[in-house]
Write a structure and sequence with these properties.
single chain, alpha+beta, protoporphyrinogen ix oxidase, domain 3, Polyamine Oxidase, Chain A, domain 2, seven-stranded mixed β-sheet, 18 helices, about 20% strand, globular
């Protein structure tokens, strides 16, 4: 590693969402000698991650659980010293349902998004017709696609391998519940690359899923532990945000500070921001843009109009979450499992229903349920034009039809996220490669947001940490090669503890 210069290096992180927080914390960890400033335009940190505590209910404003693979959340929690505060999902409720012809049917056991690890549950599922079941069962005989063939959409990939019926009744609603997207436009390579790799390696999603299931069973036998796929902070996402913020250098967080201009001149990055009605300017050696892509595009217009234009090509969709607190005796039928996904073919105005209090403990009073209903998405953005009262009525009407809800909810909250979900359309991978190639020409500049290589919280954390290590390496404050070698030397021991036991 090159010797740092005697002058103190200054780094600005623009954006206080989870990507920006992860970047700032990584900088503070690796190079406490650096002068760090985190600019956040709003009045709080966390971006879309926020928690509402209301009369015994713990309501997440966005994602309420995080994947343990990739393990970025687990590793961050370990370094923060809060690993024990992460809890797993309730084992007895680990199932989801699909609405078909107005009736609820469990997702067949072993079916993960689009890969069946067991055939019998598929062959006996009433979700599919006999023809649809047989078509899906024949997936292992579908020829592998050539590596040199054009990129496929998620819909094209799923229909080719599993059949149209399985796509419409299983894959599409499950994916819509994650991406709020149009599967006919989504890139399979950019959104779910592991299934592309399954086909490439095993020639079949079924064979690949079965191999993965065998590996998980073997891992459980060898470790003696029961592991979960999802975790969440016991006290909500806000507790994770607050913990990260508490570990940052004193005074480095600047709330209500909107960066309005970014320019590169004389080897330094000049920032202009508005704070408390006052214009301020400052100079930094490096900048991490951890804002949503549209904001990053605006800030980069003066520096690189081409990069700004490329970022502007990434479409975004929005959704609303109607959160309802209901007494158990208000429902004629108590919901089971984690939730329900709703296929487009059902013609209903909702994407999915999530039962937060079934997933995790202490999300609702003992005699109550916390239900979250998702409305909108890329195929129904007009729904967001309704008032909060209108959205609440839609949610309550749908719940009544499904579970027989009587009376007024104890609490009702509508959370709106317009234009917050980037859409990884076909060609997204090539677009991101071009953006990153152009950004690399600007010394001391890095991007970190959910429009790049993953929309989930673990991916955003990983992007923030990658950006932090890149700017520190550029400034001679961190040796990535040496750190990578050290990580490889301890990877086996670390892997043995990656999954979180269910609590």
């Amino acid at each position: 590693m090159s010797s740092p210069e005697s002058t103190t290096r200054r780094i600005a992180v623009i954006g206080g969402g989870i990507s920006g927080l992860a970047a700032a914390f990584r900088i503070a960890e690796l190079a406490p000698q650096v002068e760090l400033t985190l600019f956040e335009a709003g009045e709080r940190l966390g971006g879309i991650l926020g928690t509402i505590y209301d009369d015994g209910y713990l309501i997440e404003e966005a994602a309420d659980n995080y994947l343990t693979d990739p393990p970025a959340v687990l590793r961050l929690a370990e370094r923060l010293g809060i690993r024990e505060s992460l809890i797993g999902t309730e084992p007895s409720q680990r199932r989801a349902y699909v609405l078909h012809d107005g009736r609820l049917h469990p997702v067949p056991a072993g079916f993960t998004l689009m890969a069946p690890s067991q055939l019998w549950p598929i062959l006996t599922s009433p979700l599919l017709s006999l023809r649809g079941r047989l078509r899906l069962a024949c997936e292992r005989f579908v020829p592998r696609r050539g590596d040199d063939e054009p990129e496929e959409s998620l819909a094209e990939f799923a229909i080719r391998r599993l059949g149209r019926e399985a796509f419409e009744r299983l894959v599409e609603p499950l994916v819509a519940g994650i991406y709020s997207a149009d599967a006919t436009k989504l890139s399979i390579a950019a959104t779910l690359p592991r299934f592309v790799e399954m086909e490439r390696r095993y020639g079949s999603l079924t064979r690949g899923a079965m191999a993965a299931a065998r590996a998980r069973r073997q891992s459980s036998v060898e470790s003696g532990a029961r592991y979960g796929i999802f975790v969440t902070p016991r006290d909500g996402a806000a507790s994770l945000v607050e913990t990260i913020a508490s570990r940052l250098p004193p005074g480095c967080v600047q709330l209500n500070s909107r960066v309005e201009k970014l320019a590169h001149a004389g080897g330094a990055w000049e920032l202009s921001c508005q704070a408390a009605g006052e214009a301020r300017t400052a100079s930094y050696d490096a900048v991490i843009l951890a804002t949503p892509a549209p904001t990053a595009a605006m800030l980069l217009e003066a520096t690189d109009v081409a990069v700004a234009g490329l970022l502007g090509q990434i479409p975004h969709a929005g959704c609303a979450i109607v959160c309802l607190g209901l007494r158990r005796d208000q429902l004629a039928r108590l919901p089971e499992g984690f939730g329900v996904v709703v296929p487009r073919t059902e013609g209903r105005p909702i994407l999915a229903v999530s039962f937060a209090s079934n997933k995790f403990p202490a999300r609702a009073p003992d005699d109550a349920l916390l239900v979250r209903v998702f409305i909108g998405g890329a195929l129904n953005e007009a729904a967001l034009e309704q008032s909060d009262a209108g959205l609440e009525l839609v949610a309550r009407t749908q719940l009544d039809e499904l579970y027989g809800v009587r009376g007024e909810p104890q609490i009702a909250r509508v959370v709106r996220w317009p234009g917050s979900m980037p859409q990884y359309h076909v060609g997204h991978g090539r677009l991101i490669e071009e953006i990153e190639t152009r950004v690399a020409r600007h010394e001391g500049l890095e991007l970190a947001n959910n429009a790049l290589r993953g929309v989930g919280v673990p991916q955003c954390i990983a992007e923030g940490e990658r950006a932090a290590e890149a700017v520190l390496a550029h400034l001679g404050q961190y040796d990535r090669d040496a750190a990578g070698a050290a990580a490889s030397a301890t990877s086996t021991a670390a892997t043995e503890h990656e999954a979180v036991p269910e609590k």
